[in-house]
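Incident review: delayed structure delivery

Summary: a single-chain prediction request sat in the queue longer than the usual turnaround. Root cause was a stuck worker, restarted by the on-call engineer. No data loss occurred. The affected request and its eventual output are reproduced below so the record is complete for anyone auditing the incident later.

Affected input:
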Amino acid sequence: MTKVGIIGAGRLGSIVREAIEQGKAPECELVGVASRSLGVSAQDLIDRGASIIIEASKPDALKEQLIGILEQGVSVIPLSTGAFADAEFLEKTREAARRSGARVYLPHGAEGGFDLAATFSLIPGMKGTVVQYIPERSKMPDGNPMKALPESFKGTALEGFALSPSHLNVVIETSIACGGFENTFYETRIPADGKGGFALELENDAAAAEIRIVNKPPKDGIPMMSVIALSAVSTLNRVTQPVTF
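Output delivered after worker restart:
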């Protein structure tokens, strides 16, 4: 069994913890959850034998702890991937992983198609675009970060990320999958069907593809946030199960 720890005891971390405890990562054993409120540190998880840590806290916390975790040979599945918008931090992460042999496995978050994006990036003419569909603002609950986004925006991945850094981690993950920030762009559009969500549009000199994720109204208390959190569990399975893809 692979021993796994979690950094973060908030909503995302709780969804991840419950999934592992319910057996949704059958090759894994949870050794603990680190957070200041619980008085448990990432080092405590490593001391308990964790070889993979899922981070579900905040970008600042990831930037503070990731290099030290990797240098101890422990791999990380981070949910606060907006931290990698900092090119210097991203390169330091790569260097630490190379030295120790540990790995950083990026989950797909609220999007998908990273495997296809990575394949497309090997062919000349690569371009990836994250499209965010913004539904009618009057139907959005107060505090929804999409309310502050422009209805029609086109820019680079980093320009798009800057519009809402706490909300657009997926833009940074996509950029890495697409082979770099120079290959990746961000747009907002008003959906013709009124449904919010994301799409990933890919093209190169050989092919084109589109993958769209549509937000549904929460049912039985299951929010869209569950997809984001459980993408970390899916990634955990991908790197621990004997048959994977």
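Verification: The CA atoms of residues 149 and 210 lie 22 Å apart.
Action items: add queue-age alerting; document worker restart procedure.
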